[in-house]
Amino acid sequence: MRILITGATGFVGQALCRHLHEQSHELLVISRHPREAAGTIGVPVTAHDSALAFEHDTIDAMINLAGEPIFDKRWSEEQKQRLIDSRVETTRALDELCQRLATPPKVLISASAMGYYGDQGEREVTEETEPHDEFAHRLCRTWEDEARRLEAHGVRVAIARIGLVLDRDGGMLKPMLPMFRFGFGGKVGDGTQYMPWIHREDLVRAIDFLLTREDLAGAFNAGAPQPVTNETFTRTLADRLDRPALFTVPAGVIELALGEMSRLLLTGARMVPARLEAAGFTFRYPELDQALAAIVQRRR
Ligand SMILES: NC(=O)c1ccc[n+]([C@@H]2O[C@H](COP(=O)([O-])OP(=O)(O)OC[C@H]3O[C@@H](n4cnc5c(N)ncnc54)[C@H](OP(=O)(O)O)[C@@H]3O)[C@@H](O)[C@H]2O)c1
Question: Which segments constitute the NAD-dependent epimerase/dehydratase domain (predicted)?
């Protein structure tokens, strides 16, 4: 297939592109830095900085991952708007491209996040669960609504509500691993908040699954079947590294330091992949300890 990808240069995108390249797909990439894209990704791609540059191409599928990083900067009103605009504008550009293509692609896989559900306390969260209205929910809902517009062109749209993506060279483990290795690991707040997580390899496999299964559309929770609390995550990672995790960062300190963004650390959703599993997807890493073992042991 000829697959157009946004966000291909990112943490998820790089692994996805390597996987799709191994499957002999041809990769077309939209990047703000098209000249560097192939080097960053590490496999051959055709890159441009605008979607419309591909209007005379044949495109079989689209995968939409681009967006301003959620956790890089404090959520000022301006930064919150940037988080929304960066996702809406890249997704809208795909819609505009579909209007110009002789034949629109068959499928769009578009990223969203567990933040769609907002704070859900301890209850189990499936795709049917009513979301809690807060910024993270509004951000994801706006992004998803924009992606669904492509249905008007006859495109099958599948949305992946992604949990915390785990691997060693990016995402949240990148800053956590050295901290825990030095013995400075610890839980955040009271540690009861849920952290839905997914090994990056499983996320790539899930995206590939959604790409090829023509009967699947709508929203899919992309998190491992066993989400854990922050306390369990902390203990499991510390045990895996043979280090203590004695510290607790009090909720008040996090709130003071991060403002509204602190909700990303202090609240969560016990999100389970109900629709992916019902469709027959199996996780290579269903349990956290097993996923962390694979990540920590690699390249040791
Ligand atoms: N990683 C996670 O744990 C996680 C969890 C839930 C959801 N997600 C979502 O999944 C998607 C992929 O995650 P990721 O970790 O791979 O993200 P990432 O590493 O931050 O990469 C995202 C890509 O988006 C593009 N981008 C960044 N800022 C942008 C902006 N202001 N405007 C337009 N494009 C911009 C960049 O591509 P160029 O520089 O090439 O333009 C970047 O490579 C993201 O949208 C993220 O919100 C990730």
Answer: 3-223
User: Is the residue at 10 inside a domain?
Assistant: yes
And the tokens for 228? 């854990």
- Our answer on whether the CB atom of 140 is closer than 6 Å to any ligand 1 atom is no
Measure 244 CA to ligand 1 centroid, in angstroms: 32
| Inside any domain, residue 122 | yes
Model confidence pLDDT, tens digit, residues 4-23: 999 999 999 999 999 999 99
> Number of folded domains in the chain?
1
Ligand 1 contact via 68 beta carbon (within 6 Å): yes
Question: Residue 148: what pLDDT?
Answer: 98
Q: Does some domain include residue 143?
A: yes
pLDDT of residue 300: 42
- Residue-wise pLDDT tens digits, 248-291: 999 999 999 999 999 999 999 999 999 999 999 999 999 999 99
CB of 9 shorter than 6 A to ligand 1: yes
- Give CA separation, 19 vs 40, 97, 116, 183, in Å: 15, 25, 27, 35
Burial of 142 (0-12, 13-18, 19+ CB in 10 A): middle
Say how many Å lie between the CA of residue 243 and the centre of ligand 1: 31
Domain presence at residue 247: no
Q: How far is the CA of 68 from the centre of ligand 1 (A)?
A: 6
Q: Which domain holds residue 75?
A: 2-166+196-224+270-284
CATH number at residue 81: 3.40.50.720
